[in-house]
């Protein structure tokens, strides 16, 4: 879904926001009702944030907001004024981060649609709080994947977190 | 298999873990799915959907919506004057729903598209869609397959004699005669309604460039989609290009060419602007294909030791409104084709009915009729064992096909040319019994729970004909290979990639078949302008059929490479090997000629070619398996698949007697898909398949009330998360098929088809003291609680 563009419809309240996205300062005027996911995807062209349900359930749209994982499909762009956001495009300055590399090496993705959400959830997690493979399951339990059955994802995280012995 | 299907002299990639080339883009958010595509002048659509399950459309008022600023058009079926209904190529044996992209006169399910708003963006389109008013004269709804079978039920289609789209009653006299003289056992099994639910919803974007229609979409077949569009729009096929970019999972659901694809195309042609449709999840729940919803009645003649002597089976599939293309009756036929399982059951007569109801149209979903057959048969075998008083494992052993029985033609016509039925079964029994002993030791003293182990053993037709579903397309696949002057290779094929790794297997086989470094192979898929006509993704066919076409094309190119190299090296072709992009005499790496030098000669310095040789270093080949049949014989028998994979499943579960919840403690699967190309990709297919099978067995349920109103929102549609999905132990068997390229068999569905049966049997084992009747899925906590005395009343 995209924000009202050239031809305006009816008076829609607009809100100015300033926000840091992937270490870049962004000033924008957004429609009050625009979803954060749509702002990122349509206005900033950061389409790595995927929308799987628009209902806060699947986790595909997860981004990091001031260091916390949040679902960008159930937030408004207007709410993030003054915040700092990281999306999957900002995870590594070049190439792949160790976690991304572990997903690649362990076949942790198939269609890849859910993958940015998993990566952004895991990016904020302290591994010590999620011991063992059961801990990893807990950590990713708010993200749905329909392709992998989670086997490759668990193996990727075990590798990234140096837990291969659990496998 | 004929020598045409060979890898090159020194294969180095096949059978290893080649990492996937799209992963860098996907992992960093750079892979563009359809919803990520945008054009500056793009407009978007929102669909007005029926709110009633069955009704006549009395009036549609669109004026208010059309007046909204930013709305470009509001259309209904009446506007599509130049559009044809979807064709029905199966009219010889099915009724015709006459499906039209937007509802004409009647609606037959909640979610049926009635009108479409085209606006500057989706926000405006959705606002305006709410202003479209539709008056319905409601009709009584048919909401279950039992009701639909009743000849007095309200008819969905007035021009049909009843609600049966398909009604096949093959001659069952042989089975009947055996039933008449023996002990007979009868059971009814049902598999509930669930769906593929890919994480990416459906989407398309249509754009007209230079008078041609370009459609980017999430469909699984670029060419079938193009041909279908040409029938429906109708429009010259040469003027249509279908492109499938990254797709977020298909699983069969995206096999159908949906109304929105047609309407977006029509609007783009009419208004000259790019038109995008991105389905939201709420729409997906009611408007994308549902699946399963089968009832299987088995009557079997039983020997004293429990062996099945003959079966008479009735399969009934609830099609929903049946307004979908290709039609969705084929899963029922597939159920019929798998009813004997990998057992020596000499007589099996299956009648098949597919009925229309006022629910979302059913369509394809991974497994495609096989989970229904496996659930019914494997539960039935456990029930026979209990009834007759024999061991359920021994009963299977007494009927399972042994290697010396192969090749074996099942009573349904499937030609099982290879397999490891008994071996894979014994493997999971060994591991399953051990896991069950561990579980019993750990939880045996717990009065509040029970543990059990259950098994399922199965074969599964893979790489099938498309004819069962479409009655039109058959079963070939295509591949073009071109070596460019610098030695790089371009491979274009009709297969497509929804995340299963198709691109990677194409690169792998091409590199090995030509003897070049995999980095020098460029793969082009899923663009109807740049790939040869092929059938794409369905039925776990792509490695087998697509691989076959690829090996044929590569063989032609390889032969020519050798002929040119022999000329350059003054050697004999038969002495040459190609490896790492260089050709030399076997055993002496120098002198060598590079692929670049050979290709340069073939297409640039053609005057240096051997005398009489035509220029060029390329080939296009098509492969259609010889033994695959497209139409059944008079007794309904058909060998509808080019190959048959097999698997054995074991589930060890713990049932909480208080809550009725089932926890899967161990899941073991032995799988045989013949030659493996990429082990992690094969394992990934199995894990993912099991997750979908477990979801259907335990949690996922699409419910409708008596009015035909859908009762399951996305929030209530419980797909397994990492917490519900068990750790899986996979054991591989490799029984190469003598009849397929490299002995390959498909792997896409083997994980999905077994869990309902294995878990159902584990539940029966765990709750044996209560003699539960486990004959339906999903086995939700409420269903399980009802099996436990004194707990049934609790909800
Ligand atoms: S799209 Fe945001 S949670 Fe599903
Ligand atoms: S990889 Fe496809 S949904 Fe996770």
Written description of the protein model:
The complex is a heterodimer of chains A (167) and B (795). Chain A has 167 residues and is α+β, with helices and mostly antiparallel strands. Chain A folds into 2 domains: 14-90, Roll (Ubiquitin-like (UB roll)), CATH 3.10.20; 98-160, [2Fe-2S]-binding domain (DNA polymerase, domain 1, Orthogonal Bundle), CATH 1.10.150.120. In chain A, 26% of the residues lie in helices and 16% in strands. A 5-stranded mixed β-sheet of chain A has the order 2-1-5-3-4, with helices on one face. In chain A, helix 2 crosses helix 5 (151-160). The longest helix of chain A is centred in the C-terminal third of the chain and has 10 residues, at 151-160. Chain A is elongated, with a radius of gyration of 17 Å. The relative contact order of chain B is 0.13. With 795 residues, chain B is α+β, with helices and mostly antiparallel strands. Chain B has a 7-stranded mixed β-sheet with strand order 3-5-1-12-9-10-11. A 5-stranded mixed β-sheet of chain B has the order 7-15-14-13-8, with helices on both faces. Helix content of chain B is 27%, strand content 25%. Chain B contains 19 helices and 28 strands. Chain B folds into 3 domains: 2-31 and 476-623, Aldehyde Oxidoreductase, domain 4; 34-139 and 201-247 and 253-287, Aldehyde Oxidoreductase, domain 3 (Alpha-Beta Complex); 291-467 and 629-788, Aldehyde oxidase/xanthine dehydrogenase, molybdopterin binding domain (Aldehyde Oxidoreductase, domain 4), CATH 3.30.365. The model of chain B has no long low-confidence stretch (mean pLDDT 96). Chains A and B meet through helix 2, helix 3, helix 4 and helix 5 of A and helix 1, helix 3 and helix 17 of B. Bound molecules: FE2/S2 (inorganic) cluster (2 copies). One FE2/S2 (inorganic) cluster sits between chains A (109-115, 145-148) and B (199, 248-249, 499). One FE2/S2 (inorganic) cluster binds at residues 51-54, 56-61, 71, 73 of chain A.
């Amino acid at each position: 879904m995209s924000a009202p563009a050239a031809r305006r419809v009816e008076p829609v309240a607009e809100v100015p926001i300033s926000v840091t996205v992937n270490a870049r300062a962004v000033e924008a005027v957004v429609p009050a009702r625009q979803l954060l996911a749509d702002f990122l995807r349509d206005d900033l062209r950061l389409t790595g944030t995927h929308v799987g349900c628009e209902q806060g359930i699947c986790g595909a749209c997860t981004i990091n907001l001031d260091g916390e994982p949040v679902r960008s499909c159930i937030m408004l762009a207007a709410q993030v004024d003054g915040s700092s956001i990281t999306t999957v495009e900002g995870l590594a300055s070049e190439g792949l981060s160790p976690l991304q590399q572990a997903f690649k090496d362990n076949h942790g993705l198939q269609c890849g649609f859910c993958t940015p959400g998993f990566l952004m959830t895991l990016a904020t997690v302290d591994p010590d709080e999620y011991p063992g493979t059961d801990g990893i399951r807990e950590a990713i339990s708010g993200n749905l994947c329909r392709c992998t059955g989670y086997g490759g994802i668990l193996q990727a995280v075990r590798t990234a977190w140096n837990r291969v012995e659990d496998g | 298999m004929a020598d045409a299907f060979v890898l090159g002299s020194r294969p180095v990639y096949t059978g290893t873990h080649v990492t996937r080339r799209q992963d860098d883009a996907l992992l960093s958010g750079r892979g563009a799915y359809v919803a990520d595509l945008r054009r500056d002048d793009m407009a978007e659509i929102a669909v007005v959907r029926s709110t009633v399950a069955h009704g006549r459309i009395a009036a549609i008022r669109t004026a208010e919506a059309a007046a909204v600023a930013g709305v470009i058009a509001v259309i209904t079926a009446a506007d599509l004057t130049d559009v044809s209904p979807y064709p029905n190529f199966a009219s010889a044996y099915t009724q015709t729903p006459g499906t039209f992209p937007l509802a004409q006169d009647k609606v037959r399910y909640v979610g049926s598209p009635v009108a479409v708003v085209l606006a500057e963006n989706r926000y405006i389109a959705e606002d305006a869609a709410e202003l479209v008013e539709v008056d319905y004269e409601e009709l009584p709804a048919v909401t279950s397959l039992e009701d639909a079978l009743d000849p007095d039920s309200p008819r969905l289609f007035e021009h049909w004699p009843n609600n049966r789209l398909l009604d096949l009653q093959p001659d069952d006299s042989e089975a009947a005669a055996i039933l008449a003289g023996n002990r007979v056992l009868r059971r009814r099994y049902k598999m509930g309604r669930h769906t593929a639910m890919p994480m990416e919803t459906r989407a398309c974007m249509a754009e007209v460039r230079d008078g041609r229609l370009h459609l980017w979409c999430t469909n699984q077949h670029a060419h079938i989609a193009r041909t279908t569009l040409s029938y429906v729009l109708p429009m010259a096929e040469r003027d249509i290009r279908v492109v499938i970019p990254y797709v977020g999972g298909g699983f069969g659901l995206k096999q159908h060419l949906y109304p929105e694809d047609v309407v977006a195309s029509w609007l783009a042609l009419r208004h000259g602007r790019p038109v995008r449709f991105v389905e939201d999840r709420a729409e997906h729940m009611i408007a994308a294909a549902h699946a399963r919803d089968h009832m299987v009645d088995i009557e079997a003649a039983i020997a004293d030791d429990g062996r099945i002597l003959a079966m008479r089976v009735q399969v009934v599939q609830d099609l929903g409104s049946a307004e979908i293309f290709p039609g969705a009756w084929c899963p029922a036929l597939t159920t019929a084709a798998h009813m004997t399982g990998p057992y020596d059951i000499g007589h099996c007569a299956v009648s098949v009915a597919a009925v229309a109801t006022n629910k979302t149209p059913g369509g394809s979903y991974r497994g495609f009729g096989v989970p229904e057959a496996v659930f019914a048969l494997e539960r039935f075998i456990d029930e026979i064992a209990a009834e007759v008083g024999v061991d359920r494992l021994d009963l299977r052993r007494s009927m399972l096909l042994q290697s010396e029985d192969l090749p074996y033609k099942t009573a349904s016509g499937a030609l099982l040319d290879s397999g490891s039925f008994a071996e894979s079964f014994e493997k999971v029994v060994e591991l399953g019994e051990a896991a069950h002993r561990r579980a019993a030791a750990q939880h045996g003293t717990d009065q509040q729970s029970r543990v059990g182990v259950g098994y399922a053993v199965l074969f599964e037709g893979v790489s099938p004909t498309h004819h069962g579903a479409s009655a039109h397309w058959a079963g070939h696949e295509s591949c073009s290979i071109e070596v460019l002057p610098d030695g790089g290779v371009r491979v274009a094929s009709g297969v497509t990639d929804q995340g299963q790794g198709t691109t990677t297997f194409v690169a792998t086989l091409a590199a090995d078949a030509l003897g070049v470094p995999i980095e020098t192979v460029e793969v082009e898929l899923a663009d109807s302008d740049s790939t040869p006509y092929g059938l794409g993704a369905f039925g776990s066919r792509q490695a087998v059929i697509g691989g076959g076409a690829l090996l044929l094309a590569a063989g032609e190119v390889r032969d020519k490479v050798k002929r040119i190299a022999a000329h350059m090296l003054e050697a004999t072709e038969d002495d040459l090997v190609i490896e790492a992009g260089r050709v030399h005499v076997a055993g002496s790496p120098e002198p060598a000629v590079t692929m670049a030098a050979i290709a340069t000669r073939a297409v640039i310095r053609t005057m240096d070619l051997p005398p009489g040789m035509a220029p060029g270093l390329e080939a296009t080949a098509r492969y259609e398996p010889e033994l695959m049949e497209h139409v059944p014989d008079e007794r309904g028998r058909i060998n509808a698949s080019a190959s048959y994979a097999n698997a054995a499943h074991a589930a060890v579960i713990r049932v909480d007697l208080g809550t009725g919840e089932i926890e899967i403690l161990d899941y073991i699967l032995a799988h045989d898909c013949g030659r493996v190309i990429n082990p992690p990709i094969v394992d990934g297919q199995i894990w993912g398949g099991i997750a979908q099978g477990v979801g259907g067995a335990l949690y996922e349920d699409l419910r409708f009330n008596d009015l035909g109103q859908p009762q399951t929102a996305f929030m209530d549609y419980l797909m397994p998360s990492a917490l519900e999905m068990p750790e899986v132990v996979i054991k591989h068997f490799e029984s190469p098929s003598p009849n397929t390229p490299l002995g390959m068999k498909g792997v896409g569905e083997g994980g999905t088809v077994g869990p309902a049966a294995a878990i159902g049997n584990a539940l029966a084992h765990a709750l044996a003291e209560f003699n539960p009747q486990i004959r339906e899925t999903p086995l939700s906590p409420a269903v399980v609680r009802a099996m436990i005395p004194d707990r049934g009343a609790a909800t």
